[in-house]
What we know:
Layout: H1 17-20, E1 33-42, H2 46-57, E2 62-65, E3 81-82, H3 90-97, H4 99-122, E4 130-137, H5 140-157, E5 162-166, H6 167-171, E6 181-190, H7 193-206, E7 210-212, E8 217-221, E9 227-230, E10 233-242, H8 253-258, E11 260-269, E12 285-288, E13 295-298, E14 304-311, H9 319-330, E15 339-349, E16 356-360, E17 363-367, H10 373-388, H11 393-400, H12 413-430
Parallel strand pairs: 1-2, 1-10, 2-7, 4-12, 10-17
Antiparallel strand pairs: 3-6, 4-6, 5-6, 8-9, 9-10, 11-14, 11-15, 12-13, 13-14, 16-17
Helix pairs in contact: 2-7, 2-10, 3-4, 4-10, 10-11
Residues 4, 42-48, 65-68, 72-75, 77-81, 83, 216-217, 243-248, 251, 264, 266, 295, 307, 345-347, 367, 369, 371-374, 377 line the site of flavin-adenine dinucleotide.
Amino acid sequence: MNLLYANDRAGQFPPSYYAATAIGSREFAPLRGEVRADVCIIGAGYTGLSAALHLRQAGVSVVVVEAHRVGFGASGRNGGQVGSGQRQDQGWIEARYGIERAHRLWDMAQDAKALVKSLIAQHNIPAPFAHGVAHAARSMGSFAQQSSYAEKLARDYGYFEIEVLRGGDFAAIVPSPAYVGGGLDRGAGHIHPLNFCIGLGNAAADAGAQIFGGSPVHHIAGGARPIVQTDKGRVICDTVILATNGYGAGLTRQTAARVMPINNFIIATEPLGADAARVLTQNIAVADDRFVVNYWRLSEDGRLLFGGGESYGYRFPNIIPTVMKPMLQVYPHLRGVRIDYAWGGTLAITPTRMPYAARLGPILTASGYSGHGVALATMAGKLMAQATQGQSAGFDLLTQVAPPAFPGLGGLRWPLLVGAMTWYSLRDRMGW
Length: 432
Ligand SMILES: Cc1cc2nc3c(=O)[nH]c(=O)nc-3n(C[C@H](O)[C@H](O)[C@H](O)COP(=O)(O)OP(=O)(O)OC[C@H]3O[C@@H](n4cnc5c(N)ncnc54)[C@H](O)[C@@H]3O)c2cc1C
């Protein structure tokens, strides 16, 4: 079973709200025969397309090979939240990697948000950046943790964008009975993820990147010049950038050991009209404090886009009931609302939730953003482009904090991981 084909029609977007509102999607023909390029990029999501665009801006010849189409993967299906920082909090990062690296990683993540905004502006991408992501706390303990983290970011990192809101003040923007308060991060934001990805692809193509759709890569042959082999063609290049995230862990052994694919799901309600204000009173996104995070926002036409639920096998479950359940816990008044779209996607997590970036001979790779990839994947693509040009400080920093392999016993690893993830999500459901 291959995640590239397990749940979707070849070459098609899933039946998402994003696909229904996509702007400017182009068809790129499959690769046939042999082509040569300085860099061959595998995967046309944020990582691969950002790398392609930045390489072209430096005058490097680039071929992108994509199994389906631009934005087919997680980049075309996600919650659209452009979060601050890394997936791990700064306290954890400081303890593990030291204060100096923690500051550099924070700055990199700040630059990543700025990069998303500047790419949208420079290339007129129809994915306007709306400011504000609220982090919702279900208990006073969780609320206290969020307050002290906001204080830490202000004190130690000079980040003053988080407003901590208690009880009624929080309910005034997130009118759900499920939360006691939370922090509103005005420096984070949300975008139309597929339109951002399509826009990046079009900008890369217009800058001269050769993009091929419908071109799954089967293997990468080593040697003086690597050869990337697809169904009907091959690319001979100096450097390979592997940007396949949750959909392609099998292409290298090292990635497969550190990056675990997991599935996550989103539903979109019918337009809520005036009732949209009973969901959110401002144009912000929200994520809560569950292990399997609930996240949501309103679409431009007033639908609730609600993400939640996870699965760890190849096949998606029945998505609507999977996501309806947490949605109704957050907004019980929505019982009976019509669901117009439901879709799933595969992302990648690592044991430490830090991204996996590595040089594997002539291959550079970055993946495993652990649900925090809208900004970080876009940044990782830029850093890999710079690294192929000899400016590798940013990429080297990522490789220094790369996660170890998942623990496990050979063939038993996968069931052990699935067991562990199921245990944590069960704790969520039981409220432990
Ligand atoms: C439902 C969902 C919600 C999410 N919500 C958020 C969020 O709100 N905020 C956030 O920051 N992150 C979120 N994420 C994570 C985020 O979407 C990813 O981290 C990010 O999109 C990764 O980008 P990428 O380019 O590395 O991978 P992808 O976008 O997955 O692209 C990889 C591409 O590689 C291609 N590919 C794979 N194997 C091959 C092969 N062998 N040959 C050729 N092509 C291949 C795939 O077809 C795919 O197009 C979410 C993810 C999901 C699934």
